[in-house]
Records
---
Amino acid sequence: MNQSTAIATVTLNPAIDQSVSIPGFAAGSVNRVLSEQSDPGGKGVNVASFLADLGFRVAVSGLLGRDNANLFEQLFARKAMADAFVRIAGKTRVNVKIIDETSQAITDINFPGPAATPDDLVRLEQAIKSLLADHDWFVLSGSAPAGVPVDYYAKLIGQLNAAGKQVVLDTSGEPLRLGIAAAPWAIKPNIAELEELVGTPLPDRAAVVAAARRLLAQGIGCVVVSMGRDGALFVTSDQCLLAIPPAVEVKSTVGAGDAMVAGFVAAKMRGLPLADCARLATASALGALTQLGPQLPPAPIIESLMAQVTVIDLAASGTAQSESANH
């Protein structure tokens, strides 16, 4: 791969995702664990891990607790990801995912991350600057820990835009609202995040599309809205596509949205048209759903899932026009 087309992800608040299987989980009762698995994660780390599975060269940066960095370092080494994380005092947080296969329910218990100091942020700025020469794509993902200004992403997007980089932003709340004002190239909210952003319920697909188009008017190139089983919308100034996934057996929902971001960026870097970007993004999310931990199934399975994704052109005149999933 051309050295100047590599991807960097920035994760301000990474986490160790501890997936705990408890059939018949009940709050307020004694619960017995059937199995447990701990994976280094956090949204940008997951995106990078999935991109590595898709065959891309990736660098990872952000803020990483020094006291338990070894699990992350093992992942970076195993997937040949360049480690540009800034080590900070304390432990990276743990997010507990209680998986109840009996009821198909997942309960999240998310801890706060260690606080960042002004010196940590200066070192992070230097780390990101060191990636500019060799990385054209930057994916900024996840929440911000204590000590990080709420407009951090917005300022970083401005700097990356000025350097001619393609920026994808995947966060929520105030960091998303402020980040959008800096005009990243693409964003990927889910329905709840989009409703919070626009300040109103979005009861149907038409309302979601209208909200996405209002965001495009603010200078964003593409809005991807993930809608769970209802698929995902991919909206640009001249296209509006709905990707409908086939049913799969879900092992874990951890990282599915991050896999969608990874598949979307991978397809864009390959120069694929938006319909195929939608297929690879959706297939990657489906692949993540069938795995435990931040990994994708082998390429032939992703290709098979791509062929099962239905893409509907909502902007087509007259009745909605379905594109064949196969070429």
---
Amino acid sequence: MLERKLRREALRIFRAALHASDPVSAVNRRVRVTGSVLVAGNRKYPLDSFRRIFLTGAGKASAAMALAMERMLGRRITDGWVNVKYHHLAKVRRVRLHECGHPVPDEAGVEGAGRIARMMREAGPQDLVIYLGSGGGSALMPAPAPPVTLEEKQAVTRLLLASGANIHEVNAVRKHISLLKGGQLARLAQPATVLALLLSDVIGDDLDVIGSGPTAPDASTFGSARAVLEKYGLLGRAPRAVIHRIEAGLRGEIPETPKQGEKLFETVQNLVVGSNALAVEAAAAEARRLGFRPLVLSTLIEGETREVARVHAAIAREVLLSGRPAKPPVCLISGGETTVTLRGSGLGGRNQEFVLAAAIDLAGAGNVVVLSGGTDGTDGPTDAAGAVADGRTLSRAAGLRLDAAGMLANNDSYRFFEPLGDLVKTGPTNTNVMDVRLVLVGN
């Protein structure tokens, strides 16, 4: 009975985190229109001084962000085009939402990126470009740089994702085989004024990593892109055109991505309107309201998923055993984004794998529930945001002849939790601020 109650409370806490990361609310907190002036952060934009206003962007949350800006600017918007993940839509009127593939880019994404590039080239010195960026923007705005083709970009993306490379490393490579990423969209829009509103899905909210930073100075180089491929043993496996382009860049035959201090960024503002920290803070507030002692471990968690899960499980066991670092009832909370190194051929995602690994270490423990979910509502190539488990999960699984250890080894967490009814399904949330992990320890 207590575990059922803890499960319900874990779901309520997770929903509170999702509500706090709503993109419309995030935009409205940082941006407003007062009279004929657009105020974004600490900067003001007199709207009557601009001849045209272009609204563009790419990301899982960008449709909802476009809706927020439409409500503010209305007929002032001259033209709008935003690339979004399939089915991640909003009821906009003045902006075209173009559905594309994610996490692996597709031809629709290339078409949309071309349309965005044409809009940027059209912008002039009296125009305002508002870019709406969020998680997924890198895959959703693919503009392969010759001689790299879409198929070759897809191939290297798959290799990087399967290798366990983190988002910083993946984007370092993608920026250097792209025409828009790594500040290149801002360079293309020159000499227009550019305002980028960003919903962060990366640890540390690094501007050059969110959606591969199309409007931000790029800290990575052709050299760091090559180092990533070398680190994961991909120099001999990545498509030849990808290697040739990176090598050409190293020889100085191709211009580097724009860097900090370049003149073009004098008319560019990058403003983070929401992040994982907001979701985690909301989770902590809801946990406190439900009677738990919230303990935020970190919003900067990264690393191999199953190892991170073992650390969370160990802390939960310590709470049960000694009341350290806090006495029950406790809600351990963490944010960030872990990675999965694919070793098997199963179906799952990093959040489901986290819960399965934690459930193995918590087997037999009473009054403990663990939940992990992606705020975008999709975990890996599945229709689940994540999963939930408790100390009885492995015994229930054994009754269904489910081998927890074997399925973890095969990266098959989805098929483990599906027959147990323990998948967390939210559907597309139209937001993306990484993951929220919860471990509830009851009295």
---
Amino acid sequence: MDRISFYDQISSNKRKSIFLMIVVAVVLVVLGYAISFAFSPDYFFTIMILAIIISIVYVWFGYYNSASIAIASVGAKLASRDEYRQYWNSVEGLCLASGMPMPKLYVMPGKQINAFASGRNPQNSVICVTEGALEQLNKQELEGVLGHELSHIASFDIRFMTLTAVLVGMIAIISEIFLRSMWFKGGGGNDRESRGNAIFMIIGLVLAILAPIVVQLVQLAISRKREYAADASSVKFTRYPKGLISALRKIKNDSSNLKVSKAVAPLFIASPFKLSNLLATHPPLESRIKILEKM
């Protein structure tokens, strides 16, 4: 079996995430270019500014309050050191080994084995695990899961995904404004200008319909790459891939349901919902396990 270095795995998935982010930016530029020709550069800059303001205000509020929103939405409670001693000791040990500040620890109701991390930076971060995870995972398995969540915090994944959400949101808003504006587009100009405008109108129409779909799929792909990188970082923190492998196998065989909002589902170590691979925020558990077995 060819061995995989966790350092190479982390670097590879981060490079792929950045490349996918560039793809989203390119789609935004191409869409704007087509719209500026279909209407006018002044018109495009107007809707661009409007899209930037709406998208940033909406997403920035969620970014600065991401931890409290996520915790409140799942009905989690603060984990006391006395009641959850192993949980506390495991996180403290991993934080000391990695040089990270201690996040706030929470426990949420639910028999499903799962966990998530949130927060805009390591100083304002939280980790939340389900009751099922604490009951069914042994020390090594729990540390593998916690190492995965700490890596999301250390890599500023919430910040990265927030930036992605801003770009994706801008494309969705620009496309919506453009499609609605076409109803009010008047004629005028000579035949050559009309034919030229019609061509760019058609190109703009196609891009406005397809761009939000494409970038949404790219956003999901970025999310999956960040999960692979977090798995590799967990191995870097714990130096024991078998712990996370065993935990993921238990998660794979877990048939329990977890009642959470779809808005917070991407934060979890494994998706609480069953979706096709193309529409999933997480890679298949089988694929993650196979890669970890080579480390």
---
Amino acid sequence: MIKTRLTQLLGIEIPVMQGGLQWLARAELASAVSNAGGLGTINAMSFATPGELREEIKRLKDMTDKPFAVNVSMLPVMTVGEMYDKYFDVIVEEGVKIVETAGRNPEPYVPRLKEAGVKIIHKVPAVRYAKKAESVGVDAVTIVGFECGGHPGMDDVTSLILAQKARKVLNIPFFIGGGFADGRGLIAALALGADGIVMGTRFVATKECPVHENFKKWMLEAQETDTMIVERSIKNPARVRKNKAAFEVLAMEEKGATLEELMPLIAGKVGLQAYLSGDLDIGVIACGQVVGLIDDIPSAYDLVRRIESEAREVLQHLQKRVM
């Protein structure tokens, strides 16, 4: 067991959180991470209705008795109707004890979640947003750096800087994300001041993740230079796999394309089609620079346990080097 403020707050053994991974973060993956001692996560926005989310939570509870989280990414433009209240209703009614919010300010939901005994983690791409989240009463934050897959924010600040800055100004514990894949990374994050790490891309390359095998095979061969940033023009930067669709999006942005014109290539359901079909060029696919560190496809359970073992080995090595 590695003790940090987050392991104590959340009741987990290893300060490793699995990222929200829309479409991919389902009960099989989340339970494997939680059963290994980390914090598994399912993504509420992967489910078209609150009823479907309820069934997935029940499946997850049948597969683990360890803590897990439900991610609710509150998009600036809600594409499935104003159903956030209903998703949070399900979370409370099903007795979920940890929620990760993202996107919009979670303040309207904090009182109800707190009353239900839910620990709230809010995900942000900058320390100033973390401070704001702390001020509205969340219990912890996830801060993601420029290296991360998905949405790293507009500032282009790496996790190396964010972790150290956050430790100076935050009073609540925090996960740091972007560039982490192993025990060495976990120890580095803790040394920089974080209380744990969040990994998205690394957990895609696991046996329990339902992404098509074509994508997993690509990850084994990919380098850290095989990702790129798109969607800056709409103030929603996304780090994605370099592919035909990503370069097309970039070209359209350079010509002043609107959000509506970009949607056929960047919409979440297009990404889902790519994940499941094995066609890696039909849409933008979130992927972090850490893909360059991935060289195997273990089970998620084994990955988490290996990270703990590696972390202990790194600590022992460092202790021998410190006079």
